Amino acid sequence: MNAHAISSPHAPAAIGPYSQGIVCGEFLYTSGMLGADPERGALAQGAAAQMRQAMTNLGAVLAAAGADFSHVVKTTVFVQDLAHFQEINEVYAGFFTGACPARSCVQVAALPKGALLEVEAVAWLGKKAAQNG
């Protein structure tokens, strides 16, 4: 397996033994992104603000791999309370143009740092990535 870690100083550092993202073949697999400010580590206030920051953090990891949101083929959103579903959808939709990626959204009992949500993604980087990796 030819895989390598991706990281961005513009996204929060990992808070455990994992990478922000891994490129394997033609795909980037990201870890879950919280809605935390990368410099201070503090969570944004409220579900919409956390979604905006989580997606911004995800964008930073995508960029570190030479990708952007147009490369995302699948996301998973973990949310502490599905009552926030509509407001996080509105923020989420603003990060995609054209066809949105496939997505799962599940309610969970708890998230790291008491976050309200977490977002992970799979992005297709193309055949060039597989040749350069």
* Spatial shape: globular
Task: Report the strand count.
Answer: 7
Number of helices: 3
User: Which spans of ≥5 residues are poorly predicted at pLDDT below 50?
Assistant: none
Binned, the helix content reads: 10-25%
Helix-strand string: EEEEHEHEEH
Q: Report the average pLDDT across residues.
A: 94
Features:
single chain; 133 residues; alpha+beta; 7-stranded mixed β-sheet; 7 strands; 25% helix
Summarize the structure.
With 133 residues, this protein is α+β, with helices and mostly antiparallel strands. The chain has helices spanning 47-64, 85-93, 127-132; strands at 3-6, 21-24, 27-30, 33-34, 72-79, 102-107, 117-124.
Structure description:
The relative contact order is 0.25. With 133 residues, the protein is α+β, with helices and mostly antiparallel strands. It has three helices and seven strands. 25% of the residues lie in helices and 27% in strands. Strands 1, 2, 3, 4, 5, 6 and 7 form a seven-stranded mixed sheet that branches.
Set down the secondary structure blueprint:
Layout: E1 3-6, E2 21-24, E3 27-30, E4 33-34, H1 47-64, E5 72-79, H2 85-93, E6 102-107, E7 117-124, H3 127-132
Parallel strand pairs: 5-6
Antiparallel strand pairs: 1-2, 2-3, 3-7, 4-7, 5-7
Helix pairs in contact: 1-2
